[in-house]
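Q: Hi! First time doing this. I have a protein sequence and I read that you can turn it into a structure. Is that right? Here it is:
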Amino acid sequence: MTRVLLIHNPYAARTKQPALSAVQSVFCAAGWSVDAEATRGPGDAAELARKGVEDGVDIVAVYGGDGTTIQAVGGLGNRGVPIGLIPGGTGNLLAANLGISRNPIRAARMMTRGAPRAIDLGRLTSRETARHFAVACGAGFDAEIMTRTSGSAKSRWGMAAYVTQAVKLLRDSQVVDHRITIDGTTMDAPAATVLVANCGMIIPPFLRLKHDIRPDDGLLDVVVVNAGGLVEALAVIGQFLLGRTDSGRGWQGRRVRYARGRCIRLETDVPRPAQLDGEPAGTTPFTADIIPGGMQVIVPKIA
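A: Yes, that's right. Below is the predicted 3D structure, encoded as C-alpha coordinates:
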Protein backbone atom coordinates (compact mmCIF):
# COMPACT_ATOMS: atom_id res chain seq x y z
CA MET A 1 0.00 0.00 0.00
CA THR A 2 1.28 3.46 -0.93
CA ARG A 3 1.87 5.69 2.08
CA VAL A 4 1.50 9.41 1.52
CA LEU A 5 2.29 12.22 3.92
CA LEU A 6 -0.02 15.15 3.15
CA ILE A 7 1.50 18.40 4.39
CA HIS A 8 -0.99 21.25 4.26
CA ASN A 9 -0.64 24.93 5.01
CA PRO A 10 -3.85 26.16 6.70
CA TYR A 11 -2.80 29.76 6.03
CA ALA A 12 -2.43 29.34 2.26
CA ALA A 13 -4.94 31.05 0.00
CA ARG A 14 -6.98 27.98 -1.01
CA THR A 15 -6.58 25.25 1.61
CA LYS A 16 -9.94 25.20 3.39
CA GLN A 17 -11.07 22.15 5.33
CA PRO A 18 -13.71 20.88 2.83
CA ALA A 19 -11.13 20.85 0.03
CA LEU A 20 -8.56 19.18 2.29
CA SER A 21 -11.05 16.44 3.15
CA ALA A 22 -11.85 15.95 -0.54
CA VAL A 23 -8.14 15.55 -1.37
CA GLN A 24 -7.77 12.94 1.38
CA SER A 25 -10.82 11.11 0.01
CA VAL A 26 -9.19 10.91 -3.43
CA PHE A 27 -6.09 9.29 -1.93
CA CYS A 28 -8.12 6.86 0.16
CA ALA A 29 -10.22 5.88 -2.88
CA ALA A 30 -6.97 4.95 -4.65
CA GLY A 31 -6.09 2.61 -1.79
CA TRP A 32 -3.46 4.91 -0.30
CA SER A 33 -2.73 5.32 3.39
CA VAL A 34 -2.81 9.03 4.28
CA ASP A 35 -1.20 10.91 7.17
CA ALA A 36 -2.16 14.61 7.18
CA GLU A 37 -0.03 17.16 9.01
CA ALA A 38 -0.55 20.94 9.18
CA THR A 39 2.23 23.49 9.19
CA ARG A 40 2.15 26.04 11.99
CA GLY A 41 5.04 28.29 11.15
CA PRO A 42 8.20 28.81 9.07
CA GLY A 43 10.31 25.69 8.70
CA ASP A 44 7.54 23.28 9.69
CA ALA A 45 7.15 21.84 6.18
CA ALA A 46 10.84 20.90 6.04
CA GLU A 47 10.72 19.22 9.43
CA LEU A 48 7.49 17.35 8.64
CA ALA A 49 8.94 16.13 5.33
CA ARG A 50 12.15 14.99 7.01
CA LYS A 51 10.25 13.03 9.64
CA GLY A 52 7.97 11.53 7.00
CA VAL A 53 10.93 10.25 4.97
CA GLU A 54 12.52 8.80 8.11
CA ASP A 55 9.21 7.09 8.85
CA GLY A 56 9.20 5.43 5.44
CA VAL A 57 6.48 7.27 3.48
CA ASP A 58 6.44 6.69 -0.27
CA ILE A 59 5.29 10.19 -1.30
CA VAL A 60 5.28 13.60 0.34
CA ALA A 61 2.31 15.59 -0.96
CA VAL A 62 2.13 19.33 -0.32
CA TYR A 63 -1.20 21.16 -0.31
CA GLY A 64 -0.18 24.81 -0.25
CA GLY A 65 1.78 27.35 -2.25
CA ASP A 66 5.26 27.44 -3.75
CA GLY A 67 6.77 28.56 -0.43
CA THR A 68 5.47 25.53 1.46
CA THR A 69 6.52 23.25 -1.39
CA ILE A 70 10.10 24.40 -1.51
CA GLN A 71 10.39 24.14 2.28
CA ALA A 72 9.24 20.53 2.09
CA VAL A 73 11.76 19.81 -0.67
CA GLY A 74 14.49 21.03 1.67
CA GLY A 75 13.45 18.38 4.19
CA LEU A 76 13.53 15.50 1.70
CA GLY A 77 17.29 15.51 1.28
CA ASN A 78 18.55 13.05 -1.32
CA ARG A 79 16.36 10.15 -0.19
CA GLY A 80 14.66 9.63 -3.57
CA VAL A 81 11.15 10.27 -2.19
CA PRO A 82 9.03 12.15 -4.77
CA ILE A 83 6.97 15.19 -3.95
CA GLY A 84 3.38 15.66 -5.11
CA LEU A 85 1.84 19.10 -5.65
CA ILE A 86 -1.69 20.07 -4.64
CA PRO A 87 -1.95 23.77 -5.60
CA GLY A 88 -3.41 25.76 -2.72
CA GLY A 89 -1.45 29.01 -2.71
CA THR A 90 -1.56 32.23 -4.68
CA GLY A 91 0.77 31.62 -7.60
CA ASN A 92 1.45 27.85 -7.66
CA LEU A 93 4.02 28.52 -10.37
CA LEU A 94 5.84 25.20 -10.17
CA ALA A 95 2.61 23.23 -10.62
CA ALA A 96 1.62 25.39 -13.59
CA ASN A 97 5.01 24.92 -15.26
CA LEU A 98 4.70 21.14 -14.88
CA GLY A 99 1.16 20.92 -16.27
CA ILE A 100 -0.51 20.15 -12.94
CA SER A 101 -4.10 21.30 -12.57
CA ARG A 102 -4.82 24.24 -10.29
CA ASN A 103 -7.92 22.35 -9.10
CA PRO A 104 -6.91 20.46 -5.90
CA ILE A 105 -9.16 17.45 -6.62
CA ARG A 106 -7.87 17.03 -10.16
CA ALA A 107 -4.30 17.46 -8.96
CA ALA A 108 -4.83 14.74 -6.34
CA ARG A 109 -6.32 12.36 -8.91
CA MET A 110 -3.41 13.02 -11.24
CA MET A 111 -1.00 12.22 -8.42
CA THR A 112 -2.53 8.76 -7.96
CA ARG A 113 -1.98 8.05 -11.67
CA GLY A 114 1.13 10.11 -12.42
CA ALA A 115 4.84 9.34 -12.53
CA PRO A 116 7.93 10.89 -10.89
CA ARG A 117 9.99 13.28 -13.00
CA ALA A 118 13.43 14.55 -12.07
CA ILE A 119 13.77 18.32 -12.37
CA ASP A 120 16.53 20.72 -11.41
CA LEU A 121 16.63 22.58 -8.14
CA GLY A 122 18.03 26.07 -7.73
CA ARG A 123 20.00 27.24 -4.71
CA LEU A 124 20.35 30.88 -3.65
CA THR A 125 23.19 31.73 -1.28
CA SER A 126 23.19 35.11 0.40
CA ARG A 127 25.32 36.12 3.37
CA GLU A 128 26.26 32.51 4.12
CA THR A 129 22.62 31.38 4.11
CA ALA A 130 21.45 28.95 1.40
CA ARG A 131 17.82 28.51 0.34
CA HIS A 132 16.35 26.47 -2.50
CA PHE A 133 14.05 27.55 -5.31
CA ALA A 134 12.23 25.61 -8.01
CA VAL A 135 10.89 28.31 -10.35
CA ALA A 136 13.01 31.47 -10.17
CA CYS A 137 14.85 33.94 -8.01
CA GLY A 138 15.75 37.51 -8.81
CA ALA A 139 16.30 41.07 -7.72
CA GLY A 140 14.73 44.41 -8.44
CA PHE A 141 11.21 45.33 -9.46
CA ASP A 142 9.72 41.84 -9.17
CA ALA A 143 11.16 41.36 -5.68
CA GLU A 144 9.78 44.71 -4.59
CA ILE A 145 6.31 43.57 -5.67
CA MET A 146 6.64 40.40 -3.59
CA THR A 147 7.89 42.34 -0.56
CA ARG A 148 5.06 44.88 -0.65
CA THR A 149 2.19 42.44 -1.26
CA SER A 150 0.70 41.46 2.09
CA GLY A 151 -0.35 37.94 3.03
CA SER A 152 -3.92 39.10 3.67
CA ALA A 153 -4.11 40.63 0.17
CA LYS A 154 -2.84 37.40 -1.40
CA SER A 155 -5.39 35.34 0.54
CA ARG A 156 -8.24 37.62 -0.49
CA TRP A 157 -7.37 38.50 -4.09
CA GLY A 158 -4.93 35.83 -5.28
CA MET A 159 -2.76 36.81 -8.27
CA ALA A 160 -4.72 40.06 -8.55
CA ALA A 161 -2.94 41.24 -5.38
CA TYR A 162 0.41 41.08 -7.19
CA VAL A 163 -1.01 42.80 -10.27
CA THR A 164 -2.43 45.63 -8.17
CA GLN A 165 0.89 46.18 -6.45
CA ALA A 166 2.75 46.06 -9.78
CA VAL A 167 0.53 48.78 -11.24
CA LYS A 168 1.31 51.00 -8.24
CA LEU A 169 5.05 50.48 -8.63
CA LEU A 170 5.41 50.58 -12.42
CA ARG A 171 5.53 54.36 -12.71
CA ASP A 172 8.47 54.60 -10.35
CA SER A 173 10.46 51.55 -11.51
CA GLN A 174 14.14 52.42 -11.87
CA VAL A 175 17.02 51.07 -13.91
CA VAL A 176 20.25 50.56 -11.94
CA ASP A 177 23.60 49.01 -12.75
CA HIS A 178 24.12 45.30 -12.02
CA ARG A 179 27.25 43.17 -12.14
CA ILE A 180 26.33 39.70 -13.33
CA THR A 181 28.88 36.90 -13.25
CA ILE A 182 27.88 33.79 -15.19
CA ASP A 183 30.18 30.78 -14.83
CA GLY A 184 33.12 33.06 -14.13
CA THR A 185 32.48 35.69 -16.83
CA THR A 186 31.42 39.11 -15.52
CA MET A 187 29.35 41.68 -17.41
CA ASP A 188 27.70 44.97 -16.45
CA ALA A 189 24.03 45.41 -17.21
CA PRO A 190 21.59 48.23 -16.44
CA ALA A 191 18.28 46.69 -15.36
CA ALA A 192 15.02 47.28 -13.53
CA THR A 193 14.92 43.59 -12.65
CA VAL A 194 17.11 40.53 -13.13
CA LEU A 195 15.55 37.07 -13.00
CA VAL A 196 17.40 33.77 -12.64
CA ALA A 197 14.93 31.20 -13.91
CA ASN A 198 14.64 27.44 -13.69
CA CYS A 199 11.13 27.52 -15.23
CA GLY A 200 9.78 29.74 -18.00
CA MET A 201 6.26 30.68 -16.92
CA ILE A 202 5.93 33.34 -14.21
CA ILE A 203 2.27 34.40 -14.54
CA PRO A 204 0.46 31.25 -15.65
CA PRO A 205 -0.77 30.84 -18.27
CA PHE A 206 -0.21 34.31 -19.71
CA LEU A 207 3.36 35.43 -19.20
CA ARG A 208 6.32 33.27 -20.23
CA LEU A 209 9.88 34.54 -20.04
CA LYS A 210 11.09 32.41 -22.94
CA HIS A 211 9.80 29.27 -24.60
CA ASP A 212 12.97 27.20 -24.35
CA ILE A 213 13.53 27.57 -20.59
CA ARG A 214 13.40 24.03 -19.20
CA PRO A 215 13.46 22.81 -15.58
CA ASP A 216 15.50 19.71 -16.47
CA ASP A 217 18.38 20.99 -18.62
CA GLY A 218 20.91 21.51 -15.81
CA LEU A 219 21.05 25.26 -16.51
CA LEU A 220 19.70 28.51 -15.12
CA ASP A 221 18.42 31.19 -17.49
CA VAL A 222 19.26 34.82 -16.75
CA VAL A 223 16.67 37.34 -17.94
CA VAL A 224 17.69 41.00 -17.69
CA VAL A 225 14.90 43.56 -18.12
CA ASN A 226 16.12 47.07 -18.91
CA ALA A 227 12.90 49.06 -18.68
CA GLY A 228 12.42 52.06 -16.41
CA GLY A 229 9.16 53.91 -15.93
CA LEU A 230 5.62 53.10 -16.97
CA VAL A 231 5.89 53.25 -20.77
CA GLU A 232 8.97 51.03 -21.14
CA ALA A 233 7.72 48.58 -18.52
CA LEU A 234 4.38 48.18 -20.29
CA ALA A 235 6.22 47.66 -23.58
CA VAL A 236 8.23 44.78 -22.11
CA ILE A 237 5.16 43.23 -20.51
CA GLY A 238 3.49 43.40 -23.92
CA GLN A 239 6.47 41.60 -25.48
CA PHE A 240 6.23 38.80 -22.93
CA LEU A 241 2.45 38.49 -23.30
CA LEU A 242 2.74 38.28 -27.08
CA GLY A 243 5.66 35.86 -26.94
CA ARG A 244 7.91 38.18 -28.94
CA THR A 245 10.91 38.26 -26.61
CA ASP A 246 12.32 35.10 -28.18
CA SER A 247 13.06 37.09 -31.33
CA GLY A 248 15.52 39.28 -29.42
CA ARG A 249 19.26 39.16 -29.86
CA GLY A 250 20.28 37.32 -26.71
CA TRP A 251 22.68 39.37 -24.62
CA GLN A 252 22.62 42.15 -27.22
CA GLY A 253 18.88 42.83 -26.89
CA ARG A 254 17.80 46.39 -26.03
CA ARG A 255 15.09 45.92 -23.40
CA VAL A 256 15.34 42.18 -22.64
CA ARG A 257 18.61 40.26 -22.54
CA TYR A 258 19.17 36.53 -22.04
CA ALA A 259 22.06 34.37 -20.92
CA ARG A 260 22.51 30.87 -19.49
CA GLY A 261 24.78 29.21 -16.98
CA ARG A 262 25.20 26.98 -13.98
CA CYS A 263 26.37 29.55 -11.43
CA ILE A 264 25.21 33.17 -11.40
CA ARG A 265 26.47 35.93 -9.10
CA LEU A 266 24.40 39.14 -8.91
CA GLU A 267 25.79 42.32 -7.35
CA THR A 268 24.66 45.95 -7.13
CA ASP A 269 26.30 49.05 -5.65
CA VAL A 270 23.19 49.69 -3.52
CA PRO A 271 21.43 46.61 -2.09
CA ARG A 272 18.26 45.70 -3.99
CA PRO A 273 15.41 43.49 -2.72
CA ALA A 274 15.62 39.84 -3.74
CA GLN A 275 13.01 37.08 -4.03
CA LEU A 276 12.85 33.36 -4.64
CA ASP A 277 9.72 31.54 -5.77
CA GLY A 278 7.64 34.59 -4.90
CA GLU A 279 8.94 34.97 -1.35
CA PRO A 280 11.18 37.82 -0.07
CA ALA A 281 14.81 36.68 0.16
CA GLY A 282 16.78 39.60 1.56
CA THR A 283 18.86 41.78 -0.74
CA THR A 284 21.72 41.65 -3.22
CA PRO A 285 24.40 40.42 -3.50
CA PHE A 286 23.61 36.74 -3.93
CA THR A 287 24.77 33.68 -5.82
CA ALA A 288 22.42 31.23 -7.54
CA ASP A 289 23.54 27.81 -8.72
CA ILE A 290 21.80 24.72 -10.08
CA ILE A 291 21.47 21.20 -8.65
CA PRO A 292 20.72 19.02 -11.70
CA GLY A 293 17.88 16.56 -11.03
CA GLY A 294 17.71 17.82 -7.45
CA MET A 295 14.07 16.93 -6.89
CA GLN A 296 11.51 14.35 -8.00
CA VAL A 297 7.99 15.63 -8.73
CA ILE A 298 4.95 13.55 -9.65
CA VAL A 299 3.62 14.83 -12.97
CA PRO A 300 0.96 13.68 -15.46
CA LYS A 301 1.96 10.61 -17.43
CA ILE A 302 2.62 11.20 -21.10
CA ALA A 303 0.38 8.96 -23.22
